[in-house]
Amino acid sequence: MVEIRFLGHAAFEIKGKEKTILIDPFLTGNPSAAAKPEEFEKVDLILITHAHGDHLGDAVAIAQKTGAKIVAMYDIANYLVEGNAGITTIGMNYGPTEVDGVKIVQVPAWHSSSNGKYEIGTACGFIVELDGVNIYHAGDTYVFKDMELFAELYGIDVALLPIGGHFTMGPREAAKAVELLKPKYVVPMHYNTFPPIAKDPEEFKDLVGGKAQVVILKPGESFEL
């Protein structure tokens, strides 16, 4: 059994039988956050899709507390190690790897990646295989045709897709991404945190139709498969 808990914005906690993974743990300063950084006791891996503050978030603080390894684009991993004691980072680039028994594929995303002053690495998404379940976290991205390859190569069980527009796909584009990815389940994210990305997830659900089961989670809610 794998449990996926939505923590607000684009942050998720994914629990398997033995491993716990956080993705983009933006909690401090997140008005929709369903958890605080200090609440996490056991985290094995923290995956970071890009360097923007609303995705990098509390990764370093949680890693320092729990000993979790941070997996990120190579340049971001190096950036985090400098000046942050007590953390272990694993830098990679687009492609597959395995970290402590967890299969991870870093895939492209169409977005920028900076700390507000200069670019750090490039944006990505992740496909994670945990206990036989393939979960795709798109990060911040626009829809692109190569998403078909993700479906062909890996078979997506759950897609976590941004729908807020302005910085990412909106509902229409995200519905097209569902068509390309062919997931069994899709969870909308990256909407309603701030006014520019205000969206109704029911609009997205209507656009998806029967192409996948849309699971709309409020921050703090989970679903299992």
UniProtKB/TrEMBL annotation:
Residues annotated as domain Metallo-beta-lactamase: 8-190
Record has Hydrolase as a keyword: yes
Pfam family, one: Lactamase_B_3
The entry's keywords: Hydrolase
Superkingdom of origin organism: Archaea
Recorded GO MF terms: hydrolase activity
Family to which the UniProt record says this protein belongs: Belongs to the UPF0173 family.
PANTHER family, per the entry: UPF0173 METAL-DEPENDENT HYDROLASE MJ1163, UPF0173 METAL-DEPENDENT HYDROLASE MJ1163-RELATED
Name used for this protein in its record: UPF0173 metal-dependent hydrolase PAP_05265
Keyword NADP listed: no
Origin organism lineage: Archaea, Methanobacteriati, Methanobacteriota, Thermococci, Thermococcales
